[in-house]
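Q: Can I see a sequence and its folded structure?
A: Here is a first one.
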Amino acid sequence: MESTTEPMEHRTVPTAPTPVSTVPTEQPTPIEYIRSPRAETYLTQDGTREWIPYCVEDKKPREGMVFKTLEKAIEFYKEYAVICGFDVRSATVYKNSKGIIQKYYLCSREGILESEGNYDEKGKRRRKRNSKRVGCKARIIWNLINEDGEYKVTKFFEPHNHCLASPTSMPYLRSSRKMTMVHKNFVNNNTRMNIGPTKSFRLFKENVGSYDNVGATMKDFMNFHRDLQEHIKGDDAKMLIENFIRKRDVFNGFYFDYALDEHDHVSHLFWADATSRKNYSLFGEMISFDCTYDSNTYSMVLAPFTGVDHHKSCITFGVGLLSKEDAQSFEWLFRTFLNAMGNCEPRYLITDQDPAMKVAINEVFVNTRHRLCLWHIMKKVPEKVGPELKQDEDFLKLLNECVWDMEQESEEFEATWNSLMVQYNLVENGWFQHMFSIREHWIPCYFRDLRLGGILRTTSRSESENSFFNNFTNPHVTLVEFYMRFESAMDAQRHKQDKLNTESIHSVPQFITPLPLEKHAAEVYTRKMFYMFQDEVYKACFRCGISSIRMEENIEIAQVMDHSRQKTN
């Protein structure tokens, strides 16, 4: 027979409260009973106050009660505790070869917490903690009575030396709180939306109407989220790979690949589902590659391949995770991407100025024209010009007008650029000198002939793309949590595309001209593309005019007037 703790001393419950004298008088003063919604309190012979809970008889344990199993006995006592307004905890257990022969359950406020002092052994101040232990003697004891596994209540001590929970305090009892599957699924689903446990608790309260209806506390939500992360921690890469293997077995269009480092840790990872691969076949002429997002607690960077669809919206063709941003890692990722896409190279690739990335691009892509992302370059300007110029709104406005104007000729850009460099004393600035030397790779007017899907026209698209990925990336989440958030983001992205497709099919735009060309465009273009086309039709009809026509070598050349600008077409 073994024991985990020594059985605690208990005493018999008085069948009725005994009147005691609290003030010296010639005759005993009867006890004043104080009744609450849950308990009756009285003074004992030794002058202490005790509380006996109110409870219907069929829910109250009694000595001699027999239960078929110990589990049913424990469940009965826990239910009694919930009704009466106190928590319970497991205590002494005696065992032999047949199993548990005696079991104690106590009020959770049994015992006294010994003081540890204000400072620990290292001299650091201890965190102040409240204790609920007040030496309560309420308990129940069951004994095994036969070989059928039945247990009998051999001791039931009912009084408590503390007040019981009031109706407003009941939701905070441990026995009244339980993280059900509804709670857990709610926290888990909110995690996919980058919503933490604290905000999840508040949202749940709004759904059920009040805190009393939640059934758990904010701390319970936080503890569940912590335990979930702890369960995933260390095995999340394995769990993610196993999930990818299952998806590949079920969905033929799902593709993924990964590589391990010398410590057998995942160093490279790429995946693309069937929808992403189909979108690449439709809109993969131009892709933007950006790896400026910290996606998880392992400091692996998120490297999405992004394009623009027929609604001028960003779509994701595939995603990579890299532990290092070196040429070897980028080369692995680019080759894996091409393998997933049937070795079909994009015509144009837009990236930032990472030198390792440039090396990998030259090594992998043969027929792809590489350009630099203007938005990323312009984000660096404030740190390159010093504290005074970065606060100069006129300078920043002029510089943006200079670099973003796609209608200007290259000679006009160079003249404007040189003028700005002189005006703001930046002629000797090394960064601006270097950027001017590679202007053919990032200034739009040098590649107006390239079909870049409008990715370089404004900052809004790059900001939208960055905002989209930043909404679900977080440097503190596990790989499993990151993937859940990514899947949720992809659902939102594709839901938006489906909605725009529906609007384009089942709606008719407003026309501004009687031209058959405009009506035909409404039939073949999406609404976004049609209104862009309509704007060009409007400008051609009402803002432009032919000033002269001449023939040169059997070629008809028209001089078109567009306000104050003149272009030869």
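Q: Show me another, different protein.
A: A second, unrelated one:
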Amino acid sequence: MLVFAPASPQTYVAIPPDEGYVPRPPTFMSIAFLREAIATIDIKMTALVKERAELETKLETAVRLQSPVLRLPSELLSNIFTIGVLGMEDDNPVMVPTLMLVCRYWAEVALNTPVLWAKISVSPHDSLQKARRRLMRSKSCPLDVTVNFGPRIDYLQSVSEHITHAMDLFRPALWRIKSFSLTVPNRSHANNALIRMQEEAPMLEDLTILVHNSLQDDHFSKTPYSLFSGSTPNLRSCSLTSFNFGWDLKLMTGLRVLKLGGYLNSSSPSTSTLLDILRQCPELEELALKNITDVETNACSPAVINHEMDFPVTHKIHLPRLKRLSFHYSGIGHTKQIMNRIAFPNLESLDMAYLENVNPLLQAVHAQALTRLPLKSLRIETCVFGEMKLVNLLRKLPSLVTLQLIDIEEVSYISLRALSSSQPWACPRLESVTLDGCASFDWDSLRAFVESRLPADPHAYKRYHTSGAALMSSASAAAAAYERMKTLQSGQSALLAAPQRIRMIDVTRCNQISKEMVQWLRMYVASVKCESTKGVWGEPTSTP
């Protein structure tokens, strides 16, 4: 059999079957040509795939743009960022960078929102480069500036240089600083910082200066210059600790909050200076004096001061908006004069600590309560007074909610009995009582006080007793039951006049209160604090 093999595209050659295989001659389409054709097709396919990917990206973007979130105008999105960031209670430094990582549009909106960059801090953990960047992004927005360098030894060598550079950075923007806080180790650092802040501060509302080492650098007892050129028309809150500014009254005008502390010996202000400051702040809402030496008090002639306090003051400083008063080791002479010369008809919180004999202060508060005093919180720590002075004052405080007596030896059964009496009720709205470190009262008076404040309706508060005899297990329980019975018989009006039930009681460091007594208190009081006392080496003792 003959096999015809093509010799050319037009002719065929017969090959005998016995002569073996004969390879075909090369065609007009070479291998290189075919490979080139395949490569060309691959290039076209790659281009099509790339084009498809671009179209898919555009399609995804178009679909995303249909989302209401991404269709928000930049102004509305900026307001949302502002509310979300500034509305947080705790300042989160990574909140704004997190928003910027969502997408490019959000990053542009955040960068163009100056108020997000208005809080600027310089500290060992916040660099000047970061502060400079935030200052530039804040544009002309009011600033909240914080310069915080504590008393740690590891960076005291370079703190002066850092503070100087920080003040030089903020000095051109002083006109738009709304809040300024400076915390430094020594007075020399404070003077070097504030000597660069001599321009006017028309927008400054909150000023805080804290010097940690108040007992050092006495040669910086007075600054030779006026802070902010004496021009702070919008200043409303001022907190100064151990910074001696010469008591320039231009800085203390029209304040709402005044906090002074850490002024000892010669740096302490006089009583007349403090009264002049109060006269310039008729809208004052909070006054706090802490760690101020009473240099005017002469230990050799205490009768003179007491004699001056006996005279009635005709022209008092009227402070109708004052709501918070705090005196912590502020000098009994200063405190007596201030309390005797101011009127505080809307005071809601009073805190007195480490003031020796506070009988004149209680008398001044009692005199104010005869007209109007909506006091809600009273705290007395480590002071000496007559117990009847306190009892008479408590009877004039119907709006008192929180009573804190800490390390007071004068508190005995007399005070608790006065709070348990219904002829009439003393402090009927009282809900929180602290007797920390008070060891003079007995358990029976405390139990009678708690029981007298229980609801008159036996179904209003579930007891753990099941029989009537159990309710009369003591004389105090019987007295409380008798008071509740009289209340039930008096009708609905008497129920409305009943006092509030005690919700919190603190008997920490009260050695006369045993564990069983604490368990009884927990049956009728929602929160009972009874942290056990500790020994010399920190070990807990047997008391609850």
